Structures are given as structure tokens and as C-alpha cells.
Amino acid sequence: MTLTLDVELPADLDRFRLPEAVNARLQFLLDRQDDGQPLKPEERAEAEGLVNLAELLTLLRLRAERMTP
Hints:
By secondary structure, the chain is an all-alpha fold. It is 61% helix and 0% strand. The protein has helices at 20-34, 41-67. The longest helix is centred in the last third of the chain and has 27 residues, at 41-67. The relative contact order is 0.17.
């Protein structure tokens, strides 16, 4: 099954990144995990959600760049 969505992308899509504080929180969680400190279940869910959001924003920016003449 294929799902296609039509989305209007703003011209300044490059500004759609994780806010600095949110990105810092994600990096903190990932660094802890990389250092061998297990994350609590709620921290793991938080990190996964932030990674998913960051990936979505990156994909949107890349699509917009490909569509820009």
C-alpha cells in the first residue's frame, strides 16, 4: 500500500529544525546511552520521539531542496 500526501512547504523550510534546547536534550539522552548508561523507559520513549521528529524535519527539508529549481 502506498500513501501519498500533498503538503504545502514553506519557502523557509530550512528553519524547521529541532529547537536548540530540544536538540540539547536529545544529545544528552543519546550521549548517556552511548556512555553505557541505560535510559529509563520514559527517557527511551522521549529520545525515540525526538529522533523521529528530527528525521521527519530532515526529510521535509531534503524534499523541499529537491523540488526547488
